[in-house]
Amino acid sequence: METGAKGGPQPDAKREEAQPSDSVTRGFLFSDLRGYTQFVETHGAASAALLLDRYRALVREAIRRFGGAEIKTEGDSFYVVFSSVSTAVRCALVITGNAIAEAAQHPDEPIRVGVGVHAGETIETAEGYVGSPVNIAARICAQAGPNEVLVSETVRALTRTVLPVRFESRGRRQLKGIAEPLALYAAIETEPGAVPWAEPQGRRGRVSRRQLAVGIPILTLVALAVISSLLFRALGGPGATPSPTLAAALPAGSWKIGLVMPLTGNAADLGVRLRNAVELAIDDANRSGGIFAGSRLKLAAYDDGDSSAGGEDAGKGAASAQNMARDRMTVAVIGPLNSWVAEAMIPVTNAAGLLQCSPSNTNPGLTKPRFGALDLRSTRPTVINYVRIAPSDDIQGQALAKYAFNDLGARRALVIDDAADVGREIADGFQEPYEKLGGTVTRRALNPNADPMSVLGNLSEGSEAPAVVFFGGFTGTGAIGLRKAMVSSGHAAVPLLSWDGLFDGSGADKGSYIQRTGANVAVGTLVSHAAQPPALQGFLDRYHAAYGSEPNESVGSVSDEFAAAAYACVQVIIQSLQEVAIGRPSASQLREAVRVWAVDPGHKYQTVVSDVAFDANGDNVHQYVAFYRVDPTAQGRKGDWVIAHQADYGPPP
């Protein structure tokens, strides 16, 4: 509800003056023109002044429509405050939408506006608003592209259930003056003209700076209470259990969710974090009242850890799967950590019809028939029982091609493989989708011990030279010499793009690509990595509160998020149990009912790592890939990978 609307504070009502100690959650919007300085230089001051007038009129009309308070305008920059976070997002999308529409009338002088939105508590003083949310909103705006609305995780969490908007991850960004990298999202309207975008009913007045500070504490508290409930529901806490009928119930008994993870051995650090996340999710469900009629879940954890380099024993994984298959009280399994263990487990769980959800496996052969998945489920080839939150590795080729063509703007590519089977496969995986996008490819093979200069000749072809070099191979099969040759021959500005065969540690790690190449020489290298979307902050906070540590391991500036995906697996299982409980299945029917519901491509799940749904093979329809660049100043100037871009490249190929 907007301040001043029917039922809200009236202009002549007696109010108390807000004191500097008063703190209210608000939405902060910053916008500015993209390319304005260059426009002034190329079009002249007179045309620039007209562009600025059109831009200001467009923004101010949106501010008026949504009742924002224009706090400061300087040049092409607007600073606006809203009493509602969702209203700030709505206003931002109308600004960019109108800018795009207005460009049709002025194709030679289009308005290109970037908008950033953040939310938080600030204090209003005589000098203005005080608090870090204002600074963060301004920094987010600086990251936004032309006609793009970027928002923080806070804004996404507060509005994702109340607006017809999808939020596309832009990865974690290091913002100037902000200590920790923040997860940013592009807000994209999904249902133009839907009811939430309509003008508010009743009398509407413009919100003044003073009205924002007073007269709305009750409304704010009510809104925050509703939002907190929605967030808790997304996390699986109290309020997560729907109650469509009092008759819904699980069969009597102590039903279990199995877990296979390395709890000892070389991979125990990661395995224990994933076990903790699963334990936390089950505890959250039980504290919420269980599934229905007081049904509670238990965790049955199995350790497949060992002292090998990979830290997992496939034989132990298969034996654990057999134990869970025989235990009729186990309704689903989470794990394992590594794909080679999944290859040993899937034949067992498939034969038993036991739902299996992995947070971290990426091998395409686990799900896709063309990569051999039917061999793993040979007993029941038409039965899908294995699903995964993590993306499949074969998405990297498609994502790399789109990144090179769309983000790097490269229309010509020099594609080099290391003359080995895997390297050729990786290079083919890039070349095919890149050419479909319209790119032109020159293909070369770098044979073992060959001079890298022998395959770089056409980088010197002037305007016809490739704009990117793609390498299919590994750190030790030519990548190091290739980048050194590019730099020494004067082509340091040409990006070297590759997959995560080069993503093997920071410059502080002996034998890594950055360490062996040298941080300064490695600059300009970009690698892809199948990734998870950033987890909801509420999950991170609750994990820390429960276990006194962070759920994600950070190696330099790179952080895994498998623990959040493990929590999401539990959410998929629990939401499936809630649905099948409505039909009151018998104990002998429950396992199959849960499997059938969970793998159905028509079903979607709200989780801590965004929405989840599975395709006909069991792959998550959302396939996130992150791209990393080399920062030579990180790790004490030894260099490290830092995120350059992250996006959803789904659905799976």
Can you give a write-up of this model?
The protein has 653 residues and is α/β, with parallel strands linked by helices. It has three domains: 24-234, Alpha-Beta Plaits (2-Layer Sandwich); 255-391 and 533-622, Rossmann fold, CATH 3.40.50; 395-530 and 628-648, Response regulator (Rossmann fold, 3-Layer(aba) Sandwich). Mean pLDDT is 84; it is low at 1-22, 191-234 and 236-247.
Provide a concise account of the structure shown.
37% of the residues lie in helices and 22% in strands. By secondary structure, it is of the alpha/beta class.
How far is it from the N-terminal to the C-terminal residue, by CA? 44 Å
Fraction in beta strands: 15-25%
Number of helical regions: 20
At CATH level 3, the topology of the largest domain is: Rossmann fold
Which architecture of the largest domain would the CATH scheme give at its second level? 3-Layer(aba) Sandwich
Principal-axes shape call: globular
The average pLDDT score comes to: 84
Which features does this protein show?
3 domains, Rossmann fold, alpha/beta, 22% strand, 20 helices, eight-stranded mixed beta sheet, seven-stranded mixed beta sheet, Alpha-Beta Plaits, 653 residues
Topology diagram in text:
Layout: E1 24-33, H1 36-43, H2 45-66, E2 69-74, E3 77-82, H3 85-103, E4 113-125, E5 128-130, H4 132-143, E6 148-152, H5 153-159, E7 165-173, E8 182-189, H6 209-213, H7 217-235, E9 255-261, H8 268-287, E10 297-303, H9 314-326, E11 330-334, H10 339-352, E12 355-358, H11 373-376, E13 386-388, H12 395-407, E14 412-417, H13 421-436, E15 440-445, E16 468-472, H14 479-488, E17 496-498, H15 513-517, H16 519-522, E18 525-530, H17 537-547, E19 554-555, E20 558-559, H18 562-581, H19 587-599, E21 604-607, E22 610-613, E23 624-631, H20 634-637, E24 640-648
Parallel strand pairs: 4-6, 9-10, 9-11, 11-12, 12-13, 14-15, 14-16, 16-17, 17-18
Antiparallel strand pairs: 1-3, 1-4, 2-3, 4-5, 6-8, 7-8, 18-23, 19-20, 21-22, 23-24
Helix pairs in contact: 1-2, 2-3, 8-18, 9-10, 12-13, 18-19
